[in-house]
Write a structure and sequence with these properties.
Blueprint: H1 8-18, H2 21-24, H3 35-53, H4 57-63, E1 66-68, E2 71-73, H5 77-87, H6 106-119, H7 121-140, H8 143-154, E3 158-160, E4 179-182, E5 188-198, E6 207-216, E7 226-232, E8 234-236, E9 242-245, E10 248-253, E11 264-269, E12 276-277
Parallel strand pairs: 3-6, 4-6
Antiparallel strand pairs: 1-2, 4-5, 5-11, 5-12, 6-7, 8-9, 10-11
Helix pairs in contact: 3-6, 6-7, 7-8
Bound molecules: flavin-adenine dinucleotide.
Amino acid sequence: MAQEISDRRDMDFVLYEQLEVEKLIKHEKFAGFNRKTLDLILSEARNLAIKELLPINAAGDREGCRFENGVVKVPESFHRAFKLYREGEWIAMLDDPEVGGQGLPVTVALAIAEYFNGANCAFGMYPGLCHGAGKLIEVFGTQRQKQLFLKNMYTGKWGGSMLLTEPQAGSDVGALTTSAVRNPDGTFSITGNKIFITGGEQNLTENIIHPVLARIEGAPAGTRGISLFIVPKIWVNEDGSLGESNDVACTGIEEKLGIHGSATCSLTLGGKGKCRGLKPGWELAFRGFQWPAPPICMR
Ligand SMILES: Cc1cc2nc3c(=O)[nH]c(=O)nc-3n(C[C@H](O)[C@H](O)[C@H](O)COP(=O)(O)OP(=O)(O)OC[C@H]3O[C@@H](n4cnc5c(N)ncnc54)[C@H](O)[C@@H]3O)c2cc1C
């Protein structure tokens, strides 16, 4: 039978003997780590994978996600696992402590992700998307957007997703038709339909922050005319509190051959004309903005 959890000796060999991670952690960026702390962190991750994530893999797949009255319910057992994952602060394990991360080298974080995804890939999508969408805001968001969203995403209080695909736009993402119209207050009204959205709706987190690809009115056809927007499921007020529903409606979940515990959703944005999005700081890229060097943990 296939072995879901990597052998610890193999992991140690790759990290310490092949990739020489002990040399990497001599860099001042990783001053808080030594061989002993890394061993402890790897053991903790392995324990979580073996004791909590692996046992709910098959059961979660059998139970699957349910779509009831616009709400998606994930397998019941995923709630405890998500709570433990949050408490262990695994979501932002490789991010800078300045933004609430643990500051682990990405090499070590990838080894840990190997344990988690090996144990339960369907579960891993939820925290993975909290992190991915959060990273996007960390790198490209405005200062204000980072203040509003980042902490809650990196701690898993709020979920994340990525909304690219549409019924007529899969590989050919430039064919997307979701539109964005600028409002006087600087927000954008978003209208369109997205399909195959992993974690597009779920009942693990109180809010979901959707990065959405859409075309601003008058922008060129194809990929050149696509912009990115931050679209919360529930609007986030200026003081960080939750506001009203942002008109992001889940219309169903896909039946798949596997990973049934991961909700793959179809979403309608702006069905009632009330979906708003915020534009991150992308435009800086086109005004001669000097891109920062990637953090050392991402090199
Ligand atoms: C489980 C799952 C989760 C997903 N999660 C997300 C998500 O979170 N967010 C999101 O936005 N999307 C998501 N997707 C959608 C995914 O990104 C699309 O399925 C993907 O972009 C391919 O699009 P498509 O399915 O329309 O296939 P198509 O684009 O129609 O492709 C069908 C086939 O044609 C081939 N093909 C396409 N174009 C060409 C070409 N020019 N030349 C040669 N061959 C070609 C492809 O390789 C493929 O074999 C998910 C999909 C799945 C299955």
